[in-house]
């Protein structure tokens, strides 16, 4: 699943900073059923136009969803137009500063545990396979959604850089034709479990490179401690490098 861009996720969470909008969201989220703008406006003592505007803004931000349904059990010709109703969005919006992706780490780890439990193999090897497959699938989805399934050469490199940026890695030209990744999406858990997390990360990036038409051998997952000792790593920087 392709994540929404970081700026959109930040904007969605920030929109709840408006008091009226936050109260409307809380009302809809706790209602237990879809509610109309009239219900929301009456419950919070807001003008109907204000409630309508703010509810639609919450829909635009991905925090609420909409359904249309005739109320009062009426149906058929002459029963009036369906009412516009609001309910909480099924898909949650998560954002962090800097951008992190702990949801992805959790999904990969759980999938690896399930695979190793079912097959009796190494959990670490299962994690590497799972991460590679997820990176491959995610990159292929992004390339397909961009309408360039056969990207090669410079186009493939640009698509890979776009993928890395969307996943929160903050790729930057290293001055030699390769890339350094200035942000680790798994920073907090990598601090105490670098061996496992960096192996997972390297496999994910290798799969993503292949999905974008890039040789996976260009992804080099180095030891972050070694990079720090060389003075080549910034705080919270990803240990991986993309070679020229």
Tell me the overall shape.
elongated
Backbone structural class: alpha+beta
Q: Main sheet?
A: 4 strands, antiparallel
| Percentage beta strand | 5-15%
Domain module tally: 2
Mean pLDDT: 87
Short description:
This protein has helices spanning 6-14, 19-31, 37-44, 48-60, 102-119, 123-145, 153-166, 187-192, 194-211, 224-229; strands spanning 35-36, 64-69, 83-88, 171-173, 179-181, 219-221, 240-242.
Protein described:
- The structure is a single chain.
- The protein is α+β, with helices and mostly antiparallel strands and 244 residues long.
- It folds into two domains: 6-88, Arc Repressor Mutant, subunit A, CATH 1.10.10; 102-242.
- The chain has ten helices and seven strands.
- It has helices at residues 6-14, 19-31, 37-44, 48-60, 102-119, 123-145, 153-166, 187-192, 194-211, 224-229; strands at residues 35-36, 64-69, 83-88, 171-173, 179-181, 219-221, 240-242.
- Strands 4-5-7-6 form a four-stranded antiparallel β-sheet.
- Helix 2 (19-31) crosses helix 3 and helix 3 packs across helix 4 (48-60).
- It is elongated and about 60 Å long.
- The two termini are 29 Å apart.
- The model has no long low-confidence stretch (mean pLDDT 87).
């Amino acid at each position: 699943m392709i994540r929404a861009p970081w700026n959109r996720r930040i904007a969605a969470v920030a929109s709840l900073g408006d008091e009226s909008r936050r109260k409307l969201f809380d009302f809809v989220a706790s209602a237990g059923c879809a509610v109309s703008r009239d219900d929301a406006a009456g419950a919070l003592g807001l003008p109907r136009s204000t409630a309508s505007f703010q509810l639609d803004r919450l829909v635009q931000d991905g925090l609420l969803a909409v359904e249309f349904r005739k109320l009062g059990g009426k149906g058929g010709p002459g029963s009036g137009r369906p009412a516009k109703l609001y309910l909480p969005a099924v898909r949650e919006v998560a954002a962090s500063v800097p951008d992190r992706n702990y949801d992805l780490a959790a999904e990969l780890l759980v999938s690896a545990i399930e695979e190793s439990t079912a097959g009796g193999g190494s959990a670490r090897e299962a994690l590497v396979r799972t991460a590679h497959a997820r990176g491959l699938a995610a990159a292929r989805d992004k390339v397909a959604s961009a309408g360039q399934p056969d990207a090669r050469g410079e186009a493939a490199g640009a698509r890979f850089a776009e993928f890395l940026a969307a996943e929160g890695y903050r790729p930057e030209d290293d001055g030699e034709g390769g890339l350094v990744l200035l942000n680790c999406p798994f920073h907090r858990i990598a601090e105490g479990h670098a061996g496992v997390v960096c192996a997972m990360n390297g496999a994910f990036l290798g799969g993503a490179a292949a999905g974008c038409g890039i040789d996976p051998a260009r992804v080099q997952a180095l030891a972050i401690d070694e990079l720090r000792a060389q003075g080549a790593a910034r705080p919270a920087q990803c240990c991986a490098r993309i070679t020229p």
